[in-house]
Amino acid sequence: MIKTSWLSTLKDGQKISNTFALDVGAVTVDDAFLTSLLTAFNATGATEPRAKYLAMLKTVDTLDEIRVSQVPNPATPHEPVLRRSVFPAIAGTESVTTDDAPAEATATLTLQTGLTSKRYRGRMFVPPPRRQASMDRENWLVGGSWEAAVKAWRDWLIRLCVGSATRYSTGVFSGVNLGVYSRVADAAGDAGIQPCLGVRYNAKIHWLRSRAV
User: Fold this and answer.
1) Mean of the pLDDT values across residues 83-99?
2) Secondary structure (3-state) at 153
3) How far is the C-alpha of 157 from the C-alpha of 28, rounded, in Å?
4) Residue of 143, 142, 141, 146 lying closest to 129 (CA atoms)
5) Which of 208, 202, 201, 196 is nearest to 112 (CA)?
6) Which residues contact 53 (CB under 8 A, 6 or more apart)?
7) How far is residue 201's CA from residue 76's CA, in Å, rounded to a whole number?
8) What is the reported pTM?
9) H helices of the chain, where?
10) Alpha-carbon distance 18 to 205, whole Å?
11) Which DSSP string corresponds to 125-146?
12) What's the rounded Cα separation, in Å, for the pair 113 and 107?
């Protein structure tokens, strides 16, 4: 299993991180495999994941690092694991640079598995829009450019879901599944990761206090 982290810096210096798990099945996780994952994540095409992520960041924000690493075995937590990174150090592509709303306010994506257990419920707090014009009372404005970018990122994540109609059929992404990892379940001897069947965009405004400057 692989943990993937996308690390960015907002205009005001606030650091943000988006992390998700990938189930690699029987694939041998070695340096070559991690390098191939990073190459695919960091590809520059408009339909590639990096472009989707950059569209959620303003041109005054920076994507600093994309990191992939093995998840430690709970039974041997001090055993070394492989970790590799690329450092794009590239600005976002959201051209609306208005910055008049808190960075704590953002939207979430729900990572949906086939189990109802709290252990296997995942969510992602996406990069914040930081503009009041994107807010519609308690929700994010429908049809705005930022919402479109978030949904495009969601749609890319869906391509990694089991059973997805848009799932990758070739390349390194075809051999991995987006999942929700539970350290508690893993330590208890249960399945540590459950595959995602879908990803849902939540329009309600959520507040993440850790993003306060």
Assistant:
1) 92
2) helix
3) 22
4) 146
5) 196
6) 6, 18, 63, 153
7) 36
8) 0.91
9) 31-41, 49-54, 145-158, 183-187
10) 17
11) EPPP---GGGEETTEEPTT-HH
12) 20
Find the domain containing 88 and state its range: 2-211
Instruction: Give pLDDT tens digits for 160-192.
Output: 999 999 999 999 999 999 998 877 666 666 667
Tell me if 201 sits within 8 A of 154, measured CB to CB. Answer: yes
pLDDT at 187: 63
- What does the angle CA 37 – CA 9 – CA 200 come to, to the nearest 5 degrees? 60
| Tally of domains within the chain | 1
Report the distance separating Cα 150 and Cα 127, nearest Å: 9
SS3 for 5? strand
Q: CA distances (Å), 56 to each of 28, 122, 189, 192, in order? A: 33, 20, 38, 30
Q: How far is CA 170 from the centre of its chain?
A: 21
